[in-house]
Records
---
Amino acid sequence: MIQLKSAEQILLMRRAGLVVAEGLEAMTAAVRAGVTTAEIDAVGREVLARRGATSNFLGYGAEYGTPFPAVACISVNEELVHGIPGPRVLADGDVVSIDFGAVVEGWHGDAARTVVVGQAAQEDLDLIDVVRDAFWAGTRRMRAGGKVSDISKAIEQAIRAHGRYGVLRDFTGHGIGDAMHMAPDVPNYHVRGRSPVIEPGTVLAIEPMVTRGTHRTLDLDDGWTVVSRDGSRGAHWENTVALTERGLWVLTEPDGGQSLLGDLFGPLGD
Ligand code: MG
């Protein structure tokens, strides 16, 4: 059920992951008042071109409806995920989620970050802390012989420990490899019952999505943008994470997750 990757394949996914990390770093650095979301997308496009990588977002979903027209999903404030970059001008205090991916030699990377433009409200900074903490809490539970539901449970517990937040149920993390979305789903809340077992060679996109209000979402008419039903702001934190024979390797973090994983860190290569 879960596609297991060889060491060679994980090393190729690391190359894609580093392009994703570089793109997200450049795009989040470009976020400021007065810039349009299309301009942020162009920064990501430029990184892909410079690194000889292709986009797994551009043209996505053509078989279901409107193909996604950009290399990043950029979602502002009550837009939670899948926002389409365009003429929207960012303003001071906006909460901006950027979800970005890259393909290198057929292998995919996928990650997301949320930042605030200029002067941030404390509640928005707290929201971003919650979603980032939840990502790391879930990732630490990705263990050989463990289950995907261990990750889901840890994410939900981490969010609940911070207070009342909406945990999106309509969207989940996912397996990733020679396609962006693969089995298994990785929900951000505990689901009872059977759950796939994790083994070395498993690679997952772990991605909690949290709001300051409801978990209920609404799809906009553009065919992509997902907003919160109550208008509350959301945050999204995602990385592509491999379980190697040595431990965890966060493929879309520049340091592979070393600084936050401690003994669990287990990269491949020298
Ligand atoms: Mg994803």
---
Amino acid sequence: MHNPAIAALGLNWRYLAFEVHPDSLRTAIAGAKAMNFVGLNLTVPHKLLAFEMMDVLDDSAKTWGAVNTVRFEAKAADGQWLPLHAFPEPPKDVRAHGFNTDADAILRALREDLKFEPRGKSVLLLGAGGAGRVAALKLAQEGAKLYLVNRTVSKAEQLAAELKDGPVIVGYPKEEVDLVINATSLGLKPGDSLPFDAKSFSLSRARAAYDMIYRPAETPFLCAASAASCRTANGLGMLLYQGAKALELWTSKTAPITIMREALMQNVYGPSV
Ligand code: ATR
């Protein structure tokens, strides 16, 4: 999705994938900095490791305790730190600025793909792992009422204790909810069961359903949600919007979302979609 977007923005840049062993992450970041890369994206398990390796951290990274986007920056004549595209010649002193674009991507995906506005709404969140935790913190910050369910109950309780921004209950709701989110890994593998206990909750009690999984495009959870007349969306939007935000951080330009979405769909689901 990045290369077609970079081309559309008229930049002579390339987005490339590098496989880096966690033991070499610090060296790899230093190398990218020395070679005047404009930035990096990091994925599992590097997001947590990179947090300790940045010269400066944006609030988005501090809040979530993880870095998925690095922007290399240098000091302009007026003392301001700017992205490297602002310098005609490679600058001398470059710093690594760590961001996390995942959390905002969750909200944007819910807003744009599901027309869901969290304030005052009730959400059943299934899963309190890495992705579930970020979704919970962000939704609570935006004023949603949360029900947290996790296979390991103590993790849901721990997360609930962390949420000071709004009402949160550990367990299934008795009444209807506006949205149910699958943030567990159930649905990734064929034959996986539904990510909730059918004796404790029915999808007919939810208005909308979001699955963070995007491959397969329609998980058993989303199939069941559609059958129960919920509005549905899968996790492709989260991947898209975290990437779009990263591109905006590096280029200081608005990301061409339509081009990125098309490229992403072709790459993930194949050219027939
Ligand atoms: P991610 O970063 O994608 O959130 P993770 O941190 O490993 O990955 O979290 C995986 C989530 O899926 C957790 O909520 C996990 O539940 P536990 O905390 O009890 O491990 C959940 N999960 C994984 N396999 C599951 C299964 N078979 N049944 C129910 N929940 C499952």
